[in-house]
Amino acid sequence: MAESGESAKLSLLETAGLLETKLAKGLLLAILKKQNPDGGFPRLAEAMELTGSSWGLRIDEPNCLEVLDGKLVRVRGRGRAYFLKRLGSLKFEVRVLEPGDELELRRA
Predict the structure, then answer these.
(1) 94 Cβ partners below 8 Å, 6+ apart?
(2) pTM of the model
(3) How far, CA to CA in Å, does 35 sit from each of 8, 17, 87?
(4) What is the residue extent of each domain of the chain?
């Protein structure tokens, strides 16, 4: 039996080695289930391709992202965060965020 909607999207992310969790209304977070020797970018890019996402975030440990009103993200901790914006198929713009930096999320 074929899956549809959120269930199908969750299955795609699990297949890619990712887990999808609701963070806030309309905002989703993909969390690595295990360490990847190639780093997080290949899995994040793959998840974005599979789900058609227009952007994604990757964070280092020990770090967290503070989400305000589902639109503004502030980086907290001692590591970096990376914002990937889709420019086309397998083409991304990368923005490096340091602790204290803020990023406004906009719907594409």
Answers:
(1) 82, 83, 84
(2) 0.67
(3) 24, 9, 27
(4) 5-104
